C-alpha cells in the first residue's frame, strides 16, 4: 500500500474527531492494565510459537473506546467498537502484539476503502444532500452497513468479546500452516447493555469500573483461534467465517491490575498488528499492512 493512504487516513480521522495532542488518532480513550497469559496444551500442537510452549508470560493490556475523541462517554454508541490491545512479553525478551475490537467483521476490506469510508462519513453531516457520500459508499460496500451492529456497549470491559477480524497463520513444528482468526472471550460471558441503559451510564463508567473489579478478582478471558477451512477467505475482513468452524482454546488471559499512571503509560505504548513471533505469521489480508502504516503515522504524530 502507498504510504500516503495512511497519512490521508489519519488526516480524515483528525478532521472527524479533532486534533488532540499526545492522543491516538483512533481509540484515543483507554486504560492500561497488566496481567498474564497461560497457554493450553492444544496451542503448542498448532503453532511452534514460544508463547505456547509455556510457562505463563506477562501481558500488557490496553482497553479502549472507538474514535479519536479522548473524552467520549463510554456508553455512547460511537464508543463502539471497544478495543483490546495485548502485548505479550515473551521469554526471549521480545514482544508479540494482538490488537482486537468488538466487531465480528470489518466494514471494509482494504486501507483505501477505510480511508474512503471515513471521508464519506466526514462529508455526510445532517445538512448533506441526498444521496449522501456515505449512502453512496454503503451502496457499493455492503459490510459497511452491517458491521457496526455487531459491536454493542458492554456492562464492563471485562464482559465483552473481542475479535481479531484479520486472518493470521499458525506454523507448527513440522511447517504445517493453518490460517486462523483470534477471538478473546470473557469467561463470565459477554454482557451487553440495552441502548437506553448504556446512554444513561456515567461518562467514564467502563474505564472506572475495570480497576476496582480486577483488584478484587482478576478478569479472565479465553484466547481462542477460529480455524479456517479450505476456501475460507483470508484476505477479506468483511467476510466472517461460518460459526461452525472449529475453534482451538489457546489459553487463558488474566487481567489483574490497572497500572498506577495509565495516562502516562499509554503514551509509550504502540501495538502493531504485525508484531508477531516465529510460529505466527501475517496472512494475505491487505488490512494488516494498512493498519501497520496508519498506526505508525498516528504514533509519530502523537509522540511529537
Ligand atoms: C485500515 C483499517 C484500520 C485503520 C486505518 C486503523 C487505524 C487506527 C489508528 C490510527 C489507531 C491509533 C494507533 C496509535 O496511535 O497507536 C488505531 C488503534 C486501534 N485500532 Fe485500528 N485501524 C484499523 C483497523 C482495525 C481493526 C481491524 C481492529 C481490530 C480488529 C482495530 C483495533 C484497534 C485498536 C484496539 C486500537 C487501539 C490500540 C491501542 O490501545 O493502542 N483497528 N487504529
UniProtKB/TrEMBL annotation:
Keyword set includes Metal-binding: yes
UniProt entry tagged with the keyword tRNA processing: no
All residue ranges annotated as the Catalase core domain in the record: 1-304
GO MF terms held by the record: peroxidase activity
Listed cofactors: heme
Keywords assigned: Heme, Iron, Metal-binding, Oxidoreductase, Peroxidase, Signal
InterPro entries assigned: Catalase, Catalase_core, Catalase_sf, Catalase_SrpA-type_pred
PROSITE patterns registered for this protein in UniProt: CATALASE_3
Coiled coil: none
Cited Pfam families: Catalase (PF00199)
Enzyme Commission designation: 1.11.1.-
Entry function: Has an organic peroxide-dependent peroxidase activity.
Family: Belongs to the catalase family.
Protein name: Catalase-related peroxidase
Amino acid at each position: 500500500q502507498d504510504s500516503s493512504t495512511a497519512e490521508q487516513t489519519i488526516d480524515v480521522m483528525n478532521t472527524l474527531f479533532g486534533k488532540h495532542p499526545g492522543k491516538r488518532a483512533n481509540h484515543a480513550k483507554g486504560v492500561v492494565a497488566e496481567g498474564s497469559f497461560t497457554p493450553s496444551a492444544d496451542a503448542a500442537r498448532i503453532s511452534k510459537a514460544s508463547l505456547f510452549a509455556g510457562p505463563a508470560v506477562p501481558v500488557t493490556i490496553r482497553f479502549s473506546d472507538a474514535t479519536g475523541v479522548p473524552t467520549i462517554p463510554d456508553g455512547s454508541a460511537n464508543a463502539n467498537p471497544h478495543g483490546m490491545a495485548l502485548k505479550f512479553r515473551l521469554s526471549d525478551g521480545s514482544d508479540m502484539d494482538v490488537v482486537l475490537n468488538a466487531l465480528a467483521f470489518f466494514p471494509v476490506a482494504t486501507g483505501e476503502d477505510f480511508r474512503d469510508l471515513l471521508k464519506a462519513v466526514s462529508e455526510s453531516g445532517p445538512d448533506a444532500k441526498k444521496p449522501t457520500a456515505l449512502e453512496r459508499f454503503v451502496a457499493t460496500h455492503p459490510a459497511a452497513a452491517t458491521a457496526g451492529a455487531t459491536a454493542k456497549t458492554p456492562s464492563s470491559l471485562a464482559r465483552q468479546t473481542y475479535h481479531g477480524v484479520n486472518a493470521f497463520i499458525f506454523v507448527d513444528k513440522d511447517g504445517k500452516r493453518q490460517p486462523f482468526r483470534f477471538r478473546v472471550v470473557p469467561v463470565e460471558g459477554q454482557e451487553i447493555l440495552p441502548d437506553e441503559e448504556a446512554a444513561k451510564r456515567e461518562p467514564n463508567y467502563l474505564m472506572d469500573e475495570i480497576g476496582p473489579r480486577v483488584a478484587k478478582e482478576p478478569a479472565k478471558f479465553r484466547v481462542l483461534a477460529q480455524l479456517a477451512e479450505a476456501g475460507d477467505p483470508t484476505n477479506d475482513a468483511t467476510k466472517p467465517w461460518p460459526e461452525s468452524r472449529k475453534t482451538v482454546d489457546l489459553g487463558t488471559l488474566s487481567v489483574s491490575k490497572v497500572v498506577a499512571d495509565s495516562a502516562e503509560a499509554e503514551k509509550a505504548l504502540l501495538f502493531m498488528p504485525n508484531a508477531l513471533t516465529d510460529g505466527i505469521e501475517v496472512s494475505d489480508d491487505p488490512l494488516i499492512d494498512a493498519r501497520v502504516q496508519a498506526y505508525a503515522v498516528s504514533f509519530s504524530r502523537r509522540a511529537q
